[in-house]
Write a structure and sequence with these properties.
The complex is a heterodimer.
Chain A: E1 12-14, E2 17-18, E3 21-22, E4 25-26, H1 27-49, H2 56-75, H3 84-101, H4 113-135, H5 153-200, H6 202-239
Chain B: H1 2-26, H2 40-68, H3 73-110
Helix pairs in contact in B: 2-3
The chains are: A mainly alpha, B mainly alpha.
């Protein structure tokens, strides 16, 4: 029987090597390129007509736009409109990638920590730069909890700094672990269908049907959580506490 | 006779336009930004927050120990600091989720009756 982890294997499609570094076009790259084409194409097509009475495609585009615009309005406030492009792009990239990963025999690139970590790290570095450009050195006051007595600072500042540094870790691990665990679980239970055969195999088959629905929900939920946490980090950088 | 009939839809339109503009600037809770309700999300969020804090603490301690040759003391210190940071993360997340839920309940109470499709 195939290993449940086989689905996460990176396979080289076009081998490329530049200066001793392997930059091959892999199945992961292919899925990411597909995600960009499908996600970008969907939004571009939805926005192309701009009809007063929206058609089906335009409605999807408007729902997606309104969803993220509403999220930003709620978490950051009116100042947040500037950051709509980056948050919407991240959301669409993760959402479409997760959904493409739900298609049988495809590849889920969000189940690789390096992919999610790079996205989280970009958000982290961006927010830090934003904080420094907004507040200058005053940004360091972010690490001092309001109302704490001065003699507690030597203890509290390291804790706050570690808490701040843990943000990209938790942001990336959350998305990666959810996708990895969910897809592995699906494959393990799918293995039971064959192992138990005709006699009791229908039981895991029922379970896998329900779990596929749950996985689709999680695929959406994780894209949403990534977007909302990006909003929260931007808000922290803008307002400091 | 025909004037009030002609004026009414315009007034209504004006009112709706004003509402829409207020919504755009004031940052009130719109229905479109509402999260799908699930307890699974917050549980995973809190879990990773805790682990990430501890992990960052341990990595900092381990690297500093190797650099300064003080094994295992800084690892122990930063493990404790990291645990504290993880717990701080969890408390913040939990407080945020709680205040969100409270605001959600209140906004729901305020517009009972005018239910709209999400």
């Amino acid at each position: 029987m195939a290993s449940p982890l086989e689905q996460f294997e990176i396979k080289t499609i076009i081998p490329i090597e530049i200066g001793g570094i392997d930059v091959s076009f892999t199945n992961s790259s292919l899925m990411m390129a597909l995600t960009v084409v499908i996600g970008g194409g969907l939004v571009a097509l939805a926005a192309s007509r701009g009809a007063m009475v929206p058609g089906r495609l335009q409605t999807i585009g408007e729902i997606l736009y309104e969803f993220i615009a509403g999220l930003i309005r709620e978490t950051i406030g009116p100042d947040g409109r500037k950051y709509f492009p980056i948050i919407f792009t991240l959301f669409m990239f993760i959402l479409v990638g997760n959904m493409l990963g739900m298609i049988p025999y495809s590849f889920t690139f969000t189940s690789h920590i390096i992919v999610t970590f790079v996205m989280a790290f970009v958000v982290f570095i961006g927010c830090t730069i934003l904080g420094f450009s907004r507040h200058g050195l005053h940004f360091f006051s972010f690490f001092i909890p309001p109302g704490a007595p001065v003699w507690m600072w030597p203890l509290l500042i390291p804790i706050e700094v570690i808490s701040y540094l843990s943000r990209p870790i938790s942001l990336s691990v959350r998305l990666f672990a959810n996708m990895l665990a969910g897809h592995t679980m699906l494959k393990v239970i799918a293995g039971f269908v064959f192992a138990l055969g005709l006699l009791a195999g229908w039981l895991p088959l029922l379970l896998i049907t329900a779990l596929t629905g749950l996985e689709i929900l999680i695929a959406f939920l994780q894209a949403y959580v990534f977007a909302i946490l990006t909003c929260l980090y931007i808000k922290d950088a803008l307002e400091l506490h | 006779m025909s004037e009030p009939n002609g004026q009414e839809p315009l007034d209504d339109l004006n009112k709706r336009l004003k509402d829409a503009r207020n919504r755009k600037t004031a940052g009130t809770r719109g229905k479109n930004g509402a999260a799908p309700r699930s307890d699974y999300g917050p549980a995973i969020r809190v879990g990773t927050d805790l682990v990430a804090g501890v992990a960052v603490g341990v990595v900092i301690g381990w690297v500093l120990d190797r650099w300064l040759g003080t094994t295992p003391w800084l690892l122990l210190v930063f493990f404790l600091l990291g645990s504290a940071a993880g717990i701080t993360n969890v408390m913040r997340t939990a407080m945020k989720i709680e205040s969100d839920a409270k605001a959600d309940r209140e906004s729901k109470r305020n517009d009972v009756g005018k239910n709209e499709a999400p």
